[in-house]
Design goal:
One of its GO terms (molecular function) is aldehyde dehydrogenase (NAD+) activity. By secondary structure, the chain is α/β, with parallel strands linked by helices. The protein is built from eleven helices and 14 strands. It has a domain of 203 residues: 3-Layer(aba) Sandwich (Rossmann fold).
């Protein structure tokens, strides 16, 4: 099987490349000239260089390809380049779908997000849920929703595309929560915000397994939520503490966190700096709650993820053994 992975150097993309190569697939990776390729060390994939919206590069990358996995995305909260995010997440997705349709690939798997459901206000939802939130919580929220609409449009036109909707993606090399976890393991994380915040979790390798299963088994146009379950930040740190013996970080009072967000947000905009806390991040910590049920992926695809607790314990063990 010949397979293209967009964003092949990214967190999810690099894990996917390794899993595909272990299967014996021939892998092509679309990356930017400026991409850090450290995550692909030891891989044998063919690299095609180009922006995600560069149709010529996409045509080259899709030559003779059976499957396309679209994982490339601009993922960030807080102070972001909204125009760049629009270009990558929306225009880039449109370009991938158009070129895949013209190339006649047999299956496209799109890595979406449970965020397309909007704020479910704590309600546990499945793939049939219709978004009720009228506005958007962030540029990321808006651009991924718009990208999903594009994918669904192409599916309705006959493109054999399947959407995978993961919750929070965790792993030892996770660029988002990974540095926080490393700081915790060193005993340097003394405080945390939003202990009641609920986070859905899936191990990156379980997400990759679901994407490959979707390519093999899923019917075109289907959506699959990919999550091992959810828990509060407080529960997460309790598991980590039990595993390591390191004390749970103290919780910063909500008014103090909100004040910090209000102060640092304009400073960050003025200095073009991404502060550790901003108004948008405060909103995600305290106000937005998306909860999901991944039963469909388990029953229809035969997906069998490790538990949330096992995911966290394995990451701790990997990081501890590497240090």
């Amino acid at each position: 099987m010949k397979v293209l992975v967009t964003g092949a150097n990214g967190f999810t993309g690099s894990h996917l490349v390794k899993a595909l190569e272990q299967r014996g697939d021939v892998v092509v990776g679309l990356v930017r000239q400026s991409s850090n390729l450290d995550g692909l060390s030891g891989c044998n994939l063919q690299l095609v260089y180009g922006d995600i919206s560069d149709r010529d590069a996409l045509k080259t990358a899709m030559t003779g390809v059976d499957w396309v996995f679209h994982t490339a995305a601009y993922v960030e909260l807080g102070l972001v380049d909204a125009a760049k995010m629009e270009r990558v997440n929306v225009a880039g997705t449109r370009a991938v779908m158009e070129v895949a349709q013209a190339a006649g690939v047999s299956k496209v798997v799109y890595c979406s997000t449970i965020g397309v459901f909007g704020d479910t206000q704590g309600q546990v939802v499945d793939e049939t849920f219709q978004r009720r939130q009228a506005d958007f919580s962030s540029a990321y929220d808006r651009t991924k929703y718009e990208a999903q609409q594009i994918v669904d449009h192409f599916a309705a036109q006959g493109l054999p595309v399947v959407s995978i909707l993961p919750s929070g993606i965790f792993g030892a090399d996770d660029p988002h929560f990974g540095p926080v976890l490393q700081q915790f393991l060193k005993g340097g994380l003394k405080v945390w915000a939003g202990g009641d915040r609920i986070t859905g979790i899936v191990h990156v390798d379980d997400l990759v397994a679901a994407m490959i299963l979707a390519a093999q088994k899923a019917q075109p146009g289907e959506h699959y939520i990919i999550s091992a379950g959810d828990l509060t930040t407080r529960e997460m740190f309790n598991i980590l503490s039990q595993e390591t013996g390191i004390p749970v970080p103290r919780e910063v009072p909500k008014p103090l966190v909100q004040l910090a967000g209000n102060i640092l947000d304009p400073i960050g905009r003025l200095l073009k700096w991404q502060p550790p806390i901003s108004r948008e991040r405060v909103h995600y910590i305290y106000d937005r709650c998306v909860r999901v049920d991944a039963t469909k992926a388990c029953t229809q695809l035969g997906w069998q993820p490790r538990s949330v607790a096992q995911t966290l314990k394995e990451i701790v063990q990997t990081l501890t053994s590497a240090s």
